[in-house]
Amino acid sequence: MSLDDYNNILDVMDSMARVMELSPSAFKTLGEEDIRMQFLVQLNGHYLGQATGETFNYEGKTDILVKSDGKNIFISECKFWSGPKGLLETIDQILGYLSWRDTKAAVVIFSRNKSFSGVVEQIPECVLSHPNCKKHINDRSETCWEYLFRHRDDPNREIRIAIMAFNVPMAE
């Protein structure tokens, strides 16, 4: 998968998150699966029905899988923020879904915390503490960071993983 395709997928997902911020009442009662479905709708609009949810890959079912020409081009795992320990577990989870050929992925964190800034502050240090994290690549935005990881089964194989955090309104 080209870096341009990867960046386009991340841009689509970021745009969807901005929709959530602009229309909070439409999302405040949705659970993880329903929110993920909103991302899949947008991705399928761009990738002609090639985005699927809860799809088996390698050693588990990933939340979002985008294919092109029969090949995986993007894999993502979505979770509600449960703290740094939960983020590290989610990174382990997605590393288990990536075969040797899968080199671009994302962890999508939804937060309903009143202090979203507090969540955002914890993420970079937490990710860098993961034993497979090689280095920080760049900050795509205030709430999206890209890192280079070692493949779980082959330390010489590198994987690019974006960590994306989105503020999702709470149900009242």
Structure description:
This protein has 172 residues and is α/β, with parallel strands linked by helices. It has four helices and seven strands. Strands 1-2-3-4-7-6-5 form a seven-stranded mixed β-sheet, with helices on both faces. The protein is globular and about 45 Å long.
How do the strands and helices of this protein lay out in sequence?
Layout (H helix, E strand, L loop, with lengths): L2 H20 L9 H15 L4 E7 L2 E9 L2 E10 L3 H14 L6 E8 L4 H13 L4 E9 L2 E7 L7 E10 L5
Parallel strand pairs: 3-4, 4-7
Antiparallel strand pairs: 1-2, 2-3, 5-6, 6-7
Count of DSSP E strands? 7
Overall pLDDT metric = 91
Radius of gyration: 15 Å
Q: Quick one: overall form? A: globular
Distance between the termini: 42 Å
The helix count comes to 4
Q: Output the strand order for the largest sheet.
A: 1-2-3-4-7-6-5
The portion of residues forming beta strands comes to: 25-35%
For the structure shown, list the relevant keywords:
172 residues, alpha/beta, seven-stranded mixed β-sheet, 4 helices, 36% helix
Summarize the structure.
With 172 residues, this protein is an alpha/beta fold. It contains four helices and seven strands; from the N terminus they run H-H-E-E-E-H-E-H-E-E-E.
